[in-house]
Amino acid sequence: MSVHHSAARGTRTAARAAAFYDLDGTLADLNLVHAALYLFTNLGEWSGRLSYLLGFAARIPALYLAEQRDRHLLNVTLFEIFKGVSRDRLETLGEEYCDRVLLKHLYPQAVELIEANRAAGLEPVLVTGSPDFIVAPLADRLGISQFAANRLVYGRGRATGRLRPPVMAGEAKAHWCAAYAKANGLELAASWGYADSHYDLPFLAAIGHPVAVNPDRRLMATARSRQWPIVRFAKSGGQAGTIAGVDRTAIEGWLGRRLNGAAGSQAERT
Amino acid sequence: MARPEARLKELNRADLRHEPGARRDLVVTLNRRSQPRVIAYGDDFMLEKLPAGTRVVYPPPPLEALPDPDTAIRYALLHPLNADPMFAQLNPNMRVTIAIDDVSLPLPPMRRPDVRERLLNSVLQTLADYGVDDVHVVIATSLHRRMTEREIRRTVGERAFKGLWPERLYNFDAENRAEIVMLGKTDHNEEVWLSRRAAESDLLIYLNINLVPMDGGHKSVAVGLAPYQSLRHHHNPATLRDCHSFMDPTRSALHTSANRMGAVINQQVNVFSIETAINNQMYGGMLDFLHKNEDRFSDWDRMRLKGFRWTLGSVSNELRRQMLHQYTAPYGITGVWAGETETVHRQALQRVFQQYAVPVKGQSDVLIVGVPYICPYNVNSIMNPVLVQCTGLGYLFNMFRNKPLLKPGGTMIICHPLRDEFHPEHHPSYIEFFHRCLAETTDATELEKLFEAEFARNPTYIHMYRYGHAYHGVHPFYMWYWGEPARQHCGRVIAAGCEEPEVAARLGWEAADTLDEAIAMATSEQGRSATITYLHLPPLVIADVE
């Protein structure tokens, strides 16, 4: 089970409920393909990048078909391309992608909501199909110590192209949340879940308070019929200018402090 | 050219013809030959034959509208009550905030130009003439949902919208801690909070619409521009139980509390109130038969009613809802007053009662009301069961002065299909309130104790209120509390035409398939001696019960 515990686990078990967040499309306006493309275009020398991109291009029809059929299959197909890349390179690129791209694409309102939920006693947990080498630095920056992400299998320090089960997609997310809640004494019925895709239906349905965030067409239909709240995050901090005194600078300032803190801790580690 | 006030005096004389006493046939007792009555039934209308002896209370005819509202507005601004004229209070370096009522008023929405557009244009022009640049227009939403850009544009008109949106024209945000400020406490220890922008302005101008007597006065500023921290002092079961009725501000603990808060606000903020009254011309043109006594329907009226019902019955629920919500009412403006809050409000109240009040003799054992497709909290949205409860028990029960139309312990019949339908973007917390909280208890005090704080502080609901178009998390509780005086007064509540009996049961009501069945249930104890009153809506009417 791809459960990632931090050292501060003891304090978390005291919480009665958690807030589970999907990442791609929910907290950030990016998806797994964006991350893959960034990694491919920054792996190795020019010749290497070209071969990765060509490999990715060759897989586009398969990826499209996989996306239509099953999110699990999409993840498996997509991560095959990383075969042969060293673990340290992926981790470095994951940090780089997080700081240069992902943080800039986080919805400010999502960050605000995470903080508000945390203040209300809902422990934040990321549950995503993104790879752990991207999610770990992001969780660090957001001050989230618990997450479930997809993990590559490595052999002699290099990715084998396979994913370590369970692959974080569809029902696996729901099972992980149930197991996590049980292990940590949390009430899933009192917890909140946030996701954007109909592939996350099992995940949302397993949690007491499901919320559809910027839902796709099919999730929107389900949310309406099941009377789930529908939240819309916008990059502009809401409908631009329509909200009296939206304190966007405060959110950015908060994120800045988090980043500075992370940079400081990284510096200490080195 | 005659001076504006001269024309207004003429109008006042014309208005006198519409004193309640001058209007006849507003209370009708049915006999065996009486025609079936039109009854609002959610997004449809029932046509039901009521038992002989049933008393029907009809709304008074619309008061004559001011022929030139813009002149009347200018006149009111130049001749304020108990205050200096607005222009005399202006200087170029001052900060001015204009607050306006939100989408909850009037109902149905007013045909363009909305009275707020007329008021805004006049006020903004005056401010511009005197070189006042620091002007913000705040929509006084309190804990209501934010109005959409389209709704705001429609309400304030093109001129104000183009000049001010979005930096200087926006919805109030009661959850932005940086934008609210506490002004002090009343002598009853009630915290008085207000929009910071309004509190720090040199002049706060409130543009109000009085649809019913519970609107306006100190309630406009003290509630419309206030956050939860203030509202919880009067929007609670104890205070609302002490209201006799909401439509009689002199006997309403809610209004008394708002007045105390308003007094604190007026000590610190220079408030210039502008109140308007509109007539009850809710339906015009092809739908004007809805205002008529059914016994006086012409063939043309019957044909239109049949066609209207056929049209509503031929389309899907969603399309029917959209069609009805697109309807706009041809209201006429019947009065404009400006100046000091309380003096202005007294004048406006007088005109509003002049429009709605109907003298009625005695209470009855059974009260029948039809809940329409719209209430203040579901404009362009869905009328969910909690809102049906609020409209039926909160608003329609309270359409009285002196005494309720219903005897203590009597039965209220509410006509509505009562479907388990909610709008997930407008009413997210209502869904949890209905399915989780009401499943545990329907006791308002228990609900307040067990759940209110949790919902009021829920981050997701707050987020949806601030950035989406959701009512605040605590709002469904207020809707429930609103029905508290009626729950204390009524012996039984029966939902007539109820499609989902489990929804009625969740509200603590009984369910009946038809109105006939509901009446039979209601009169099962007294039999034929039971007195029945049907409060005919639309439009609105307030029973002056002797």
Could you explain the architecture of this structure?
The complex is a heterodimer of chains A (270) and B (546). Chain A is an alpha/beta fold. Chain A has a single domain, classed as HAD superfamily/HAD-like (Rossmann fold, 3-Layer(aba) Sandwich). Chain A has helices spanning 9-12, 32-41, 46-69, 71-79, 87-102, 108-119, 132-142, 171-184, 201-205, 217-226, 248-269, and strands at residues 17-21, 122-131, 146-155, 158-164, 192-195, 209-213, 230-231. Chain A has a 7-stranded mixed beta sheet, sandwiched between helices. Chain A is globular and about 50 Å long. In chain A, 43% of the residues are buried. Mean pLDDT of chain A is 81; it is low at 1-14, 237-252 and 259-270. By secondary structure, chain B is an alpha/beta fold. Chain B has 2 domains: 31-60 and 361-546, 2-enoyl-CoA Hydratase, Chain A, domain 1, CATH 3.90.226; 62-282 and 329-355, Rossmann fold (3-Layer(aba) Sandwich), CATH 3.40.50.11440. Chain B is 38% helix and 19% strand. Chain B contains 20 helices and 20 strands. Chain B has helices at residues 4-16, 69-78, 115-129, 149-164, 196-199, 218-224, 228-231, 237-241, 253-268, 299-314, 317-325, 341-356, 385-396, 428-440, 444-456, 459-467, 475-482, 484-489, 501-507, 515-522, and strands spanning 27-29, 37-41, 44-48, 55-57, 95-100, 134-139, 169-171, 180-185, 191-195, 203-210, 271-278, 333-339, 357-360, 364-370, 400-401, 406-415, 492-496, 510-512, 532-535, 542-545. In chain B, strands 1-4-19-14-16-17-18 form a 7-stranded mixed beta sheet. In chain B, strands 7-6-5-10-11-12 form a 6-stranded mixed beta sheet, with helices on both faces. In chain B, a hairpin with a 5-residue loop joins strand 8 and strand 9. In chain B, helix 2 (69-78) crosses helix 3 (115-129), helix 6 (218-224) packs across helix 9 and helix 15 (444-456) runs antiparallel to helix 17. The longest helix of chain B has 16 residues, at 149-164. Mean pLDDT of chain B is 93; it is low at 1-22. Classes of the chains: A alpha/beta (270), B alpha/beta (546).
